[in-house]
Amino acid sequence: MAWIILCFAGLLEIGWAMGLKLSDGFTRLVPTVLTLALAVFSIYLVGLSARSIPVGTAYAVWAGIGAVGTVIFGIVIFAEPVSLMRMACVGLIVAGIVGLKLVDGSA
Fold first, then answer.
1. Is 101:3 a contact under the CB 8 Å cutoff?
2. Which of 69, 75, 13 lies closest to 41 in space, CA to CA?
3. H helices within 1-107, ranges in order?
4. pLDDT for residue 103 is more than 90
5. Which residues cross the membrane (predicted)?
6. What is the mean pLDDT of the chain?
7. 95, 44 in Cβ contact below 8 A?
């Protein structure tokens, strides 16, 4: 269950990272409020998952999911640049996330 919570926290991190762009430097009220709410809930869920997943693993997986998702959404939604090297780096992050899950001793 902790891994499911952690994955959900990572998805929320993608949401609040996208909100940073949509809030326009925290100058737009609704995106700012949503961004802050997503950030707080995301961090809360990481804390819950860290009860049974090592904190270093939980944090790295959470940040990795957020980073990969934010890059992909940035490319798709905001037409950010895409290159072979950029995608290779994203692949390395995914490999790290998978590797941490595989070596973790928790269920």
1. yes
2. 13
3. 2-22, 29-49, 55-78, 84-103
4. no
5. 29-47, 59-78, 84-103
6. 94
7. no
